[in-house]
Amino acid sequence: MFSQVSRNMGRAQGGLGIGLSLVRSLAGMHGGSVEVSSPGSWQGTTFTLRLPLAEGGQPDREEAPLAGQDSTPLAGSGLRIVVADDNVDAANMLSALLEASGHTAEPVHDGLQALRRIESVRPDLAILDIGMPSLNGYEVARALRATPGNDGIMLVALTGWGGELDRERSTNSGFDAHLTKPAAAGDLERILGLAAARRNIG
Fold first, then answer.
1. CATH 3.40.50.2300 spans which residues of the chain?
2. Are the C-beta atoms of residues 117 and 143 closer than 8 Å to each other?
3. CATH class, range 76-201
4. Which of 100, 135, 170, 191 could share a disulfide with 175, CB 3.0–4.6 Å?
5. In sequence order, what are the beta bridge partners of 47?
6. Within a 10 A sphere around the Cβ of 169, how many other Cβ atoms?
């Protein structure tokens, strides 16, 4: 779906151009849409985001959940997550989305920083870009898997490289899953559920 001229593992040169697609996916998750229009070169661009109003408005008061009812916004809420991507906006946006869903998410922006942070906080889930400076995602995963005590951390590759060889290399490096940017909401939900199940078993 997206491609780069250079497959430089050290850095994502200029990004993948996924911003608008990501916005469209997020809007779609809420039943909305986004449109872009322009009258021509050097005449500006209009972005139109439409979101539906909540049905019934806001309740007068919060009602306590029924006994045994899960009141968390997503299955597996409360996960500790590290998001590593040298695209600062992408890392911060995904972290904010996860935080809004009831998780604790911390963005970092290079491979060495990711490795140190993951080993420090021992999160339930680490979502790693592949093309990062200092250490790429594969190197981070291999280093983590080579260190005793990190088996319980779920590692997920989130990258623009989604070919068969890329996925095979992810598996061989110790990743538990491989998602292609931009990740679909259903795929993220599945990953969060798997990470919660792993945490509960551990």
1. 76-201
2. no
3. alpha beta
4. 170
5. 36
6. 18
SS (H, E, C) the chain: CCCCCCCCCCCCCCCCCCHHHHHHHHHHHCCCEEEEECCCCCCCCEEEEECCCCCCCCCCCCCCCCCCCCCCCCCCCCCEEEEECCCHHHHHHHHHHHHHCCCEEEEECCHHHHHHHHHHHCCCEEEECCCCCCCCHHHHHHHHHCCCCCCCCEEEEEECCCCHHHHHHHHHHCCCEEEECCCCHHHHHHHHHHHHHHHHHC
Q: How far apart are CA 75 and CA 82, in angstroms?
A: 18
